[in-house]
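Q: Okay, next protein. This is Universal stress protein from Desulfuribacillus alkaliarsenatis. I've checked the sequence twice, so it should be correct. Can you predict the 3D structure?
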Amino acid sequence: MIIMYKKVLLAMDRSNESEKAFNRAVSIARDNQAILTIVHALGIPTDYDYKLLAPDDDKRDLAREEAGKMLNTYKEKAFQQGVTAVDLVIKHGMAKRVLTEDVIPSVQPDLVVVGATGMSALDRILIGSVSEYVVRHSPVDVLVVRS
């Protein structure tokens, strides 16, 4: 039995693991002629302090702008590698909750692709692994890409 994926959702951060997840998601989307949706969650900033940023905060606007640039770069790479449809999503909040409670229900993908890790060891202890959480809570197939 061959499984055909028509909507592939890729969670991206700035880690090496998500770069590898990108390559796998692009390959799957291209081979299945699927829509690729790339999502990035802007969570709690660890380089400033641990307060959530207000909607009009300059840091939040800058983070959103930088995320947009990153996702547009990946969108162009996906097109260059033969993917014909790419959507971009930027959300605010903890990545694991954004993915499972907001993006997966709204995008309704057939497959979610995530990197095996993307956080520091301390972040994993404090807030938990995104990939582990998505595997446990996703209603659809999840591919965890290891480095």
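A: Here is a summary of the prediction. The beta strands are 7-11, 35-42, 85-92, 111-115, 141-145. The mean pLDDT is 85.
Q: Noted. On to the next one.
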